[in-house]
Amino acid sequence: MSPNVLPEKSEELEQFWSQRYESGQTGWDLGAVSPPLKHWIDIWTSENMQDRSVLLPGCGNAYEANYLLENGFQDVTVVDIAWPAIHRLQQRVSEQSAEHLAHLSTVHGNFFDLKDRYSLILEQTFFCALDPSLRQPYVQKMHGLLEEQGELAGVLFDAPMHDHRPPFGGTAAEYRELFAPYFDFLTWESCSISHPARQGSELLFRLRKRS
After folding, report:
1. What does DSSP assign to residue 25?
2. Domain boundaries in the chain?
3. CA 27, CA 100: separation in Å to the nearest integer?
């Protein structure tokens, strides 16, 4: 198997992503909170949602978790299958603020095994990292993880990418067909605030769980 081909077994998948963090093969990592996710966190902050529970799936280095905590969010959960990503986040937050660490929950494991429910979920470079065969299960799992009237917000790649390795691309029309049975669309538009490296290739969205 090519080292870039996404494996199917859970233990091999964990090794696949962990090796990338350990070797620094993290081209998706911007080194700071991304402009689109900062946008959504700022909106949630302005709407006084800091008491809501927030989930960051496939969190990676999760600079967004730091930003949430800095903005007063008190119940932030991150999940990633790669232990190095989780460990780095724990270290970074503990060095910055013991109080923030008390409001952060870290889960080293598979997103699809999560059982809790959340008010808000942030999506960024997780959907595109999953094999396309998991897109329907992803949407259904997101719907199941959200509380009533919960929100899923973030960005998706609205462009062709790779066929056999992540990131996997797609189109806004394809994604809308997946999400429409489960969510109401609050925002669904080309992203004008992307990081320069992603300009013109992202879809900005905010969805509300449909009962």
Report:
1. -
2. 10-209
3. 27
To which residue do tokens 């992307």 refer?
Answer: 194
CATH topology of domain 10-209: Rossmann fold (3.40.50)
- Return the closest-CA partner of residue 128 out of 31, 24, 198, 40: 198
pLDDT top residue among 3 and 29: 29
Q: Give 157 or 1, the one with higher predicted confidence.
A: 157
Mean pLDDT computed over every residue of the chain: 90
pLDDT of 117 above 50: yes
d(CA 188, CA 173): 11
Contact status, residue 107 vs residue 136, Cβ threshold 8 Å: no
Q: Provide the percentage of residues in the chain whose pLDDT is more than 90.
A: 65
Name which of 14-23, 135-144, 145-154, 163-172 the model is least confident about: 14-23
Grouping H, G, I as helix, E, B as strand and the rest as coil, residue 27 is coil
CA distance 168 to 29: 16
Q: Classify residue 130 as exposed, middle or buried by CB count within 10 Å of its CB (0-12, 13-18, 19+).
A: buried
